Amino acid sequence: MELPGAGGGKVEKVEVSTDAGKTWQLANLQEPVLSKAHTYFRYLWDWKGEATEILSRVTDETGYLQPTLAQLVEARGVNLGGYHMNPITAWQIKNDGTVLFKPETIK
Asked: For the chain, what percentages of helix, strand and coil (3-state, to nearest 5) are there?
């Protein structure tokens, strides 16, 4: 699997999932949006107090969609190193409002 673009352009859009990646909604980008730079975004969400996972992913102007860790491993193998290590990352939200980083492991 080839990962085209590898994040070489300006952020075109950011999508947010509040249901562990089952569905994705567009977020609002905050200016300035610059080439090859971090971009702030906002997404308003009415949390109902249920446990879930939230994620975000970016698509840049070259069409590069931020990959999952599994997609990175498939494209590069298990020896990923640290360069351009940018997989989609999940955050767990517990019923009590506790937010925890959910790291993935390479299988």
From this structure: 5, 30, 60
